[in-house]
Amino acid sequence: MDNVGYRIYQNFKRPSKTLVEKFRSIPVANIDDCMNRTASLSSALEPVNDSILLGTAYTLTAAGGDNLLFYYAIDNAKPGDVIVVAGGGYTERALCGEIMAAYAKKRGIAGFVVDGAIRDKKQLSELDFPVYAVSSICNGPYKNGPGSVNIPVSIGNQVIFPGDIILGDDTGIVAIRPEDAEALYEKSLKVKEKEAEMMKSIEEKGTLDLSWLYRKLEEDHCQIIHAQK
Prior knowledge:
The protein is built from seven helices and eleven strands. Helices cover 31% and strands 28% of the residues.
C-alpha cells in the first residue's frame, strides 16, 4: 500500500569519513564565506552546548511535537550520522531530551539538529554531544506519526539532503553537498589561512590592509568631505 507522507527510506549514499573529517578544523563562518555567504541555517537554531557538530545528515520530518520517527532515526542511523529533524519550527512541545541524546551518543550518532523544541536543557548543556534547537520547553512529545525518514527536508531556510555533510559551531550550521565538498574545503582552508595572517598583522604590526576599502570608495565615486563649509 502506498502511504505518501509516511515512508522510511533506509539506504542512501554517505560521503567518506576521510572527506567529512577534513572539515573538523574549518570554522563554519569560513565555509559560509565560500558559499556566497548564503548557506547558514537560520539563526533560530542555537547550540545547546559547546560541542562541535560534524557528520552526515540523516533526515526526517516530524509533525509538530511528535517524535515517533525521531526514535526510529536514533535506533537506525549509523555512527557519524547527524540526525536532522524538520519539525516545522514548532516550539510548544519538545521533540527530544536527555534520554534520547544519551542513547544517540552511545550509538555513535554525531549530533542533533532539531527545528523545534527540546527539553532537559541543563542536562543537554552538560552532555558532550552536540544539539541545536529552536527552543526549550517541558511539554513532552507525542508518538503518533506520521512523517518521513531520509528525504530532502527544508529546515532553517535551507534544503538538506540525506548524506550532506553537516557542520556546526557557535557561529551557526551549514550543510555541504558531497560533490561540492572537496573544492569547498580547499577554498575555505585558504580563507582560514588568510584570516590567520590578518590577525597576525594586527597583533604584531598593529595594521590591517584595507586597500580594498579605499578602492571601493573610489570606484563608487564616494565624496569625502574634509571640512564643513
